[in-house]
Amino acid sequence: MYKTPQKSKLKSIIVKNFDGYLSFQYLIPGKHYKPFQLPQLEKYRQTEEIKLREDQERIFETLLKYYPIVSLRDHGFVVPKNQEDIIPYCRQLHTVYDYEGLALSGIDVLFENFMDGISILTSTNGLKWDDVILTLGIRYCDITKQNTAYIAKNYHDLTEAKKTKRIAILPALEAASILENEVDRVDVLYGLGIRCMGITYNEANTLGAGLIEKNDSGLTKFGYKVVERMNLLGMVIDISHCGDQTSLDVIEASRAPVFITHAGARTIWNSPRMKSDEVLKACAAKGGIIGVCAAPNTTLSSKNPNEHSIESVMEHLEYLIDLVGIDHVGLGPDTFFGDHVGLQHAFDDMLSLSESHGESFEESPYVKGLENPTEAMKNMIKWMIKHDYKIQDIQKIIGGNAMRVLRGILN
User: Fold this and answer.
1) In order of start, what are the domains of the chain with their CATH numbers?
2) Could you read off the pLDDT of 324-368 as tens digits, one per residue?
3) Max Cα-Cα span within the chain
4) What whole-number distance in Å separates Cα of residue 147 and Cα of residue 170?
């Protein structure tokens, strides 16, 4: 059973309000839902400590206290410790969300897709409409019972997070597959709080081609309708998992800047999961933002393919800065609490859906230095401070750029 101590013994800087609430604590484990063995305090321990000088620590504390910190993709979802528990755990609606871990993260605005559990529930036919509604509803219910995080509906809501020492969660969907061929479902999702949606995941859908498809014919006629509707509503468009031609079509079709919430540069790591220079430059030229991903076994580097660490992730960041300019770069770590790789394997096996990574590599169980949401954003900030980034540039990367563009999109 998942328990959180009343007083954390961690040395982390707690910058958010946390009242000790446990996910679904209003229910009785064993009676209302089945409890599973989940990771305890070890999920907060850094896999790699980034030590700063005293003057650098002051810069770090200043950034956490005064500047908006935006994660373009992270998860409060807690994955079970045992591999065999992952699918049964995800098949029940009552999956644990780690409010304390997020309170320790320093994140102000969190792009969260809430579909982590429901991904395992689905068949090879893809996400079901009713499943999405149930998953959103049960998570919203749990969020309503606590005071650390809240659902953000507009730009003003995002700006309140730092002021109130809480976390503004911007609900997102990984892909628009559940629309099938009904464009009005975009409006329904917006009404249910969704403010960001991917066009495709990895496979093709009625809107366009995903990144694992050999033949990418681009955005479909229905896809163009969806892009138009998302623009009219004020919903962020995400192309992280789209194929190249579909990505380019979306960027051209959208009246608003497009986000790549969690990806990296294919020049650094030759994988369909990464983005080509052409797509990256097109996204930036339209005013979009590219979030650097730190999910295990994604933003690797051909310089050292068998060790996934913060160094390989930040190599993507530095390449993107050189390629598109610092005003178009952000952070989208895409981290979990618990066994992220185990969840991905369960997801792939269940759906017979695996990404093609291009180059060969030895799989890493986690990214050294970026293991979970508690440490990821803070360590990326510390890395930039240690590498003598100007405070003005760090401020842009950790949230300033994203907030600037979101102000023009969210109604």
Assistant:
1) 41-409 (3.20.20.140)
2) 999 999 999 999 998 888 888 877 665 544 444 567 778 888 899
3) 57
4) 16
